[in-house]
Amino acid sequence: MEIHEIQFVKGVVRWEGLPDEGVPEVAFVGRSNVGKSSLLNMVAERKELARTSRTPGKTQQFNYYLVNQILYFVDVPGFGYAKVSKKQRAKWGRFIGEYLTHRVPLRVVFHLVDCRHPPTQLDKDVMALMRGSPVPYIIVLTKADKLSNNQRQKSLASVQQVLAQGAMEVPVVFTSAKKGTGREELLTWIENLVAV
Ligand SMILES: Nc1nc2c(ncn2[C@@H]2O[C@H](COP(=O)(O)OP(=O)(O)O)[C@@H](O)[C@H]2O)c(=O)[nH]1
Ligand SMILES: [Mg+2]
User: Fold this and answer.
1) Fewest 10 Å CB contacts: which of 103, 117, 141, 194?
2) Measuring from atom 8 of ligand 1, which residue has the nearest CA?
3) 150 C-beta neighbours (distance < 10 Å), count
4) Nearest CA to ligand 1 atom 16
């Protein structure tokens, strides 16, 4: 699959704001600062399609990007270290949970995990949600350029250990927004799972 055209369409903060269900959706979910915006820019080969940031936790909305006029990429941000109330956090968590488990046009969930750190509680929550879901689920280990080969193997093993606890078999893709690693692999998954 090649991306000929991609544009930001809208930011969504509640269920009622989600677009009409006629267009298939590809979700990129992960805590803020994990590298979602950078990955979208890398996949789309656009420098500043999605805004990247050194300050985590700024964008608290689902960002919808229309690709080739036929599918959406959806940037789904969890919380990082942003200072928000427990109540707000819980509410946002429920929205993400609803989206991942009940969104009809959703064709695949790419769950981004920073390869330098073991899965966080948020990561484990997402894994648990996707465990019972029929929607294809793939883990993306971001910032692979920051690790040596040997460290990458350890990172993979730690993720697989968590998955094994839930008896889950999940494809894992290493990516680097800096080097373009994993781009073709992601596009092939998208092509096959969205049938475009
Ligand atoms: N070295 C490296 N840094 C990355 C990579 N992806 C993201 N970053 C950096 O991580 C920070 C957060 O990235 P961003 O895309 O804004 O994360 P988001 O909050 O999940 O959208 C930024 O400083 C990026 O430059 C990567 O693949 N390699
Ligand atoms: Mg972002």
Assistant:
1) 117
2) 35
3) 8
4) 52
> Is residue 79 a part of any domain in this protein?
yes
**How far is CA 49 from each of CA 29, 31, 109, 119, 163, rounded to the nearest angstrom?**
17, 19, 20, 27, 32
Residue range 68-98, pLDDT digits in tens: 999 999 999 986 656 778 888 889 999 999 9
Contact call for residues 111 and 144 (beta carbons, < 8 A): no
Minimal-distance CA residue to ligand 1 atom 7: 35
CATH code of the domain covering residue 141? 3.40.50.300
Is this structure's pTM higher than 0.70? yes
Say if 113 falls within a structural domain. yes
Q: Domain count of the chain? A: 1
Each residue's pLDDT tens digit, 49-64: 877 765 554 558 999 9
Per the domain annotation, does 1 fall within a domain? no
Structural domain containing residue 126: 6-194
Residue 100, domain member (yes or no): yes
